[in-house]
Amino acid sequence: MRISNTLTQATCLLLSLGLTTEARSVSPVAKGYSRSEKCKPHAPFRPLPPSQARTKTCHVATYGDGRDDSKHILSAIEKCNNGGKVVFDADKFYTIGTALDLTFLKHVDLDIQGYVQFTNDTDYWQANAFKQVYQNATTFFELGGEDVNVYGGGTLDGNGQVWYDLYAEDALILRPVLVGVIGLNGGTIGPLNLRYSPQWYHFVANSTDIVFDGIDISGYSKDSVTAKNTDGWDVYRSSNIVIQNSVINNGDDCVSFKPNTTDIIVQNLHCNGSHGISVGSLGQYEGEVDIVENVLVYNISMFNASDGARIKVWPGVSSELSTDLQGGGGSGIVKNITYDTMYIDNVDYAIEVTQCYGQSNLTLCNEYPSSLTISDVYFNNIHGTTSGKYDPDVGTIVCSSPSVCSNIHATNIDVTNPDGLYADEFVCTNVNTTLLDVNCISS
Ligand SMILES: *[C@@H]1O[C@H](CO)[C@@H](O)[C@H](O)[C@H]1NC(C)=O
Ligand SMILES: *[C@@H]1O[C@H](CO)[C@@H](O)[C@H](O)[C@H]1NC(C)=O
Ligand SMILES: *[C@@H]1O[C@H](CO)[C@@H](O)[C@H](O)[C@H]1NC(C)=O
Ligand SMILES: *[C@@H]1O[C@H](CO)[C@@H](O)[C@H](O)[C@H]1NC(C)=O
Ligand SMILES: *[C@@H]1O[C@H](CO)[C@@H](O)[C@H](O)[C@H]1NC(C)=O
Ligand SMILES: *[C@@H]1O[C@H](CO)[C@@H](O)[C@H](O)[C@H]1NC(C)=O
Ligand SMILES: *[C@@H]1O[C@H](CO)[C@@H](O)[C@H](O)[C@H]1NC(C)=O
Ligand SMILES: *[C@@H]1O[C@H](CO)[C@@H](O)[C@H](O)[C@H]1NC(C)=O
Ligand SMILES: *[C@@H]1O[C@H](CO)[C@@H](O)[C@H](O)[C@H]1NC(C)=O
Ligand SMILES: *[C@@H]1O[C@H](CO)[C@@H](O)[C@H](O)[C@H]1NC(C)=O
């Protein structure tokens, strides 16, 4: 497997670090390197711990015929943990049919050059995938520990079709997330291809100091049902994370900042078919305090999406978005969020701020305003064309009361309707419109 052409920038970075597939096959030992230097143009909020040198190599054996290779994987990792590199060989096929607890990793690389597929045994995975509690998420495996790199340009395939079909029959089934990064401190993930996740592609929880670089995400349903909730990244209870140089073809949030996500850089992404780069949803669980603070989203191309830049907050009253997603009544703080440089094409709303997430009855929503505060938000340099779905509106910035939103700015926004028949309007409610350099129609 080779990394895709669209990831040339990531390739250049890796070339300069001597980490391409070619270089690796010459030298079995990956040198230590600086993770922070990979992060461009914006540096992480805090320096990332460097990756230490690896001094041994273990190759993962495979049946190659669909039988479960989990014991091969565990035995190679046990041999090469603490200073080694575990290689999934190019052009080999690996099957995972067992939920793998990989939270014991330390100073180890997973060099995934081959093709790794999870089994389609939905009964097994529903019973055994790791329960992450938040939004009933489960994961095929848990990758955690300290100083872990996963790269190689190979593929992880979630065998999603069987899950898309099952979910269409029963929305309460538990579909595993393809990549569970749970309790990882210090790591580099990518280049990698991720395909056909049953639901989200990444759940990053209880983790710090990680750079995702050169991830290629894609996976559509091959029949008439839709692959739902295929978020690119959901970040939760995590800090100092960089997500960059990646291509995401999916059907839900491209990247989503869930409760207690701080100090995040997202840069140089190409998103297609998504629900935008989203803060939230937040305020879902009554009695909980959700914090999303210090986020910089830079240089995003957003195609065929419902939103570009988005902040979604549940109202103060219990609400239902869908059979498997209800909430409302939580509180929290959204602060210091910057969206800088976004190109949109065929996107319903360039910017959407809502505190009525999941509640279609606006009268009811307004009776129970959210107490979650939103402040110091900067939408800068957003240009392109909407889908026309909400003509003449191209964006909506609506807070539940004037007291919860402050210092929300929109500057250099050049977004137009596709047909040019209408003025390009924004709905602005309970916000200081003098800070919004857009054509607000109500306030
Ligand atoms: C599940 O995978 C097995 C082995 O690859 C295959 O024989 C079977 O048809 C698949 N089942 C479904 C429902 O896709
Ligand atoms: C994260 O850590 C907390 C506190 O130790 C723990 O309760 C929780 O289960 C962990 N995992 C997730 C996904 O929140
Ligand atoms: C899990 O799903 C059930 C059924 O939709 C829902 O009632 C419950 O609130 C969910 N739990 C969480 C933590 O979201
Ligand atoms: C998020 O952080 C706040 C403030 O520290 C804390 O009260 C809350 O319990 C945390 N929530 C989660 C889900 O960890
Ligand atoms: C923006 O990101 C794209 C990849 O989506 C990349 O090709 C381009 O060089 C980046 N531009 C800047 C100014 O970093
Ligand atoms: C982009 O998304 C649309 C659906 O919104 C899909 O039809 C199209 O195939 C996607 N493009 C790529 C390159 O995957
Ligand atoms: C707010 O975020 C910016 C990045 O957009 C960062 O440079 C700045 O330090 C943050 N402010 C605080 C007070 O942390
Ligand atoms: C957007 O979707 C259209 C049709 O669904 C598709 O032709 C186009 O390639 C998509 N854009 C991208 C960048 O994939
Ligand atoms: C919306 O909420 C209001 C206020 O609670 C209520 O009077 C009205 O009947 C609701 N409308 C619908 C369509 O449920
Ligand atoms: C709105 O912002 C302007 C410019 O900063 C400021 O002068 C004004 O006091 C603000 N209005 C309110 C109601 O906060």
TrEMBL record:
Keyword Ribonucleoprotein: no
SMART domains: PbH1 (SM00710)
Compartments reported by the entry: Secreted
Span of the signal peptide: 1-25
Coiled coil, from the record: none
Chief localisation class: secreted
Residue numbers annotated as active site: H275
Reaction catalyzed: [(1->4)-alpha-D-galacturonosyl](n) + H2O = alpha-D-galacturonate + [(1->4)-alpha-D-galacturonosyl](n-1)
Keywords attached to this entry: Cell wall biogenesis/degradation, Disulfide bond, Glycoprotein, Glycosidase, Hydrolase, Repeat, Secreted, Signal
GO BP of this protein: cell wall organization; pectin catabolic process
EC number(s) given by UniProt: 3.2.1.67
Superkingdom of the organism of origin: Eukaryota
Any one GO cellular component localisation term in the record: extracellular region
InterPro entries named among the record's database cross-references: Glyco_hydro_28, PbH1, Pectin_lyas_fold, Pectin_lyase_fold/virulence
Pfam (any one): Glyco_hydro_28
Keyword Transit peptide: no
Any one GO molecular function term: galacturan 1,4-alpha-galacturonidase activity
Gene3D superfamilies to which the protein is assigned, alphabetical: Single-stranded right-handed beta-helix, Pectin lyase-like
Functional description taken from the UniProt entry: Specific in hydrolyzing the terminal glycosidic bond of polygalacturonic acid and oligogalacturonates.
Family: Belongs to the glycosyl hydrolase 28 family.
Protein name: galacturonan 1,4-alpha-galacturonidase
Organism for this UniProt entry: Penicillium frequentans
